[in-house]
């Protein structure tokens, strides 16, 4: 298993955790409810949609004296440099791509919700706890996006009506390791905010792949898997 985070806007800026999380990675997701206290009837709760999904774990950053320990499964990194990078991402609210290559795998855009650490022992070791919030961009649609721009006149030309056979061919894309719908949408549309177009057009294939890899569902495209062929609408 490997745990890596990369800046969504700059893939060259990344961090591969030198030591694996201690014991487990906790994924939490709850439903949100709106509560109403009705006189003489009590409290009623109505579901309003999913709450923010979180990904969290505890771990260790080993000091230089322990750089050859078997628990360091990748290149040893100075704990101070790791802490500085994570704090910088947390404080700036940087959007990151979290990739965990284990089991069905996790490949999702996140921001760091909290990061705490403390030094212990006399060999420069640190223990830490980190929590990520799943990132979902908010797209504000204009009247133009909704197709209700009153000033725009409807015009058609013979050229527009005549589409070549090549125009009618649908584009496809095969998911590769490290992909997420946000980045695929950015590749084809220039904006990751259009990820839901791809999800809606490929919902059956995406959900089928998620179940194949042991998930109840894809959590609206959070879990996608290499080899799945997508149609780009």
From TrEMBL:
Name all LysM domain ranges: 171-232
Listed transmembrane segments: none
Entry-linked PROSITE patterns: LYSM (PS51782)
Please list which residues make up the signal peptide: none
Q: From what superkingdom does this record's organism come?
A: Bacteria
SMART domains, sorted: LysM (SM00257)
Q: Cross-referenced Pfam families, in alphabetical order? A: LysM
List the Gene3D superfamilies. Answer: LysM domain
Name the InterPro entries for this protein. Answer: Bact_Kbp (IPR052196), LysM (IPR018392), LysM_dom_sf (IPR036779)
Record-given protein name: LysM domain/BON superfamily protein
This chain's source organism reads Blautia wexlerae
């Amino acid at each position: 298993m490997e745990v890596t985070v990369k800046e969504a806007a700059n893939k060259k800026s990344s961090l591969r955790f030198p030591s694996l999380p201690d014991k487990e990675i906790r994924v939490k997701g709850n439903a949100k409810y709106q509560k109403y206290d009705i006189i003489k009837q009590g409290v009623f709760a109505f579901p309003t949609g999913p709450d923010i999904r979180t990904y969290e774990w505890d771990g260790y950053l080993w000091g230089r004296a322990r750089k050859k320990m078997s628990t360091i499964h990748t290149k040893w990194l100075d704990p101070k440099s790791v802490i500085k990078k994570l704090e910088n991402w947390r404080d700036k609210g940087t959007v990151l791509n979290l990739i965990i290559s284990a089991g069905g795998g996790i490949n999702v855009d996140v921001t760091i919700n909290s990061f705490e650490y403390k030094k212990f022992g006399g060999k420069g070791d640190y223990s830490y706890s980190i929590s990520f919030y799943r990132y979902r961009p908010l797209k504000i649609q204009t009247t133009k996006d909704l197709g209700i721009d009153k000033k725009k006149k409807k015009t058609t030309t013979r050229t527009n009506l005549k589409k070549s056979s090549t125009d009618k061919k649908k584009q496809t894309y095969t998911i590769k390791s490290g992909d997420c719908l946000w980045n695929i949408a950015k590749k084809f549309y220039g904006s990751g905010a259009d990820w839901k177009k791809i999800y809606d057009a490929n919902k059956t294939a995406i959900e089928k792949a998620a179940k194949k890899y042991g998930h109840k569902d894809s959590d609206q495209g959070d879990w996608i898997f290499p080899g799945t062929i997508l149609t780009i609408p």
